[in-house]
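Dear U.,

For the methods section draft, I wanted the exact inputs and outputs in one place so we can describe them consistently. I've listed the two proteins in the order they'll appear in the manuscript figures. Please don't edit the token lines directly; just add comments below if something needs changing.

First protein:
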Amino acid sequence: MNANCFDERQLQARGQIFFHGFASALALILCNAFLQESGVVWASPFNQNLLIGMLAVTVVSIESLVRGVYFGRQKTPWRQIGLFGVASVVLTGICLRNLLQGAALVENSALSAKGAALVFDGMFLATTLVALAQVMTERRKNRA
């Protein structure tokens, strides 16, 4: 898609949002490096990387929703809402099943894979709820 279809405000806001996502990812990577250097293991290396990456995506997603920035031709991000909504429903079901079966969220003083899935679910759920709140707010404004 060509950048000419966005006005100047959209381009500036998109740049700020991506910068905030990059800065948050960089800060999380540095914090994780300091924790590892100090001998603190809070999750497996695989889960650490996934959680750091997903948290940066969550920051970008929520900020873009709150600031009214769109990345495609549609102003309402239905694909994003659908993707995060389906992921949060599926992960909520999996996490609830795991919790009911007595799965450990923390193993050996570190976040287990089941605990990491619960954190992922929280990020997906937060993004979905913000998106739905934004859509409902816009609809109320359009009715008035």
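Second protein (the one for the lower panel):
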Amino acid sequence: MSRFTGIVAIISLSVLCVGLAWGQHGTANLPSAVAWQADETEVSSQIRLFEGTSNDSYDFAIRGELNNNAEVGLGWFTMSTMGEDPIGDAVRASNLDLLTLDLKWQVADGTTRGAIRTGAEFPTSATIGMNTATGAFVWSNRAIPFISAIIERGDPDGWLWILEPKGVGFDADMAASDGTGTVEGFGNLFMVGAGVRRASGQIDLFADAAYPISGENSIDEDTNRVERELAWSAGGTLYLGGTHNWTLDVFATNTAGPSAATSCIVAPDQSVGLGVGIGGEF
């Protein structure tokens, strides 16, 4: 496989916690439609290690109750990647640092539940893609807004089905540092995702897939141009219990991160990563 940004071999440490009656958890890439309802705060931390040199990402986030029908999430995400196979005799390197704000309002309850999710992800430094041969780079410091509708149906103690159409406002063009113009970005991305979660005693299994209807969400490993790719994940959660409701989460995925925007970004060449997580309520 090509390694423009590295063939992804992800090991993630994500803090998850046991939910209440309706589970309050979706899949690795799709959220639950149920707002967080616990008095405690969910804390999450994640590391993803990519195959090759200088390919990794980290995430820290918290999620808490606003009221019976709403939740708020705050987070920090950072990623750096460097391809090992040159494109046009140059190796590309990129960096992405974000502060994330995520709001969710639950608008329907019962067997079928629904929610509106919105927010934005704010660069803490310029997002950069660099040509390591020349030192030239493209950059952006624009916030990434998003909005989605989440529809969830079924029994969290059995089969749970999730649908999420989502819009994410990536930059359409990134400015070149040498003043020669711009390079095409992902643009306004609209994706439709579907997932399933199956509870079976102490273990839940989950899977999801999402595809762009418009915009792009990956980089072609041969041409360095933006393209559309299927985003997916599959794995399971082991509920360990204890004072903080500890869980162990293991999954495979091809996406860059856990947030609304980074979960849209697919590793070049459909590279597959492994995720491992542990966490609880505080």
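Candidate sentences for the figure legend, describing the second protein: Residues 42-279 form a domain with the Porin fold (CATH 2.40.160). The radius of gyration is 18 Å.

Thanks,
Y.
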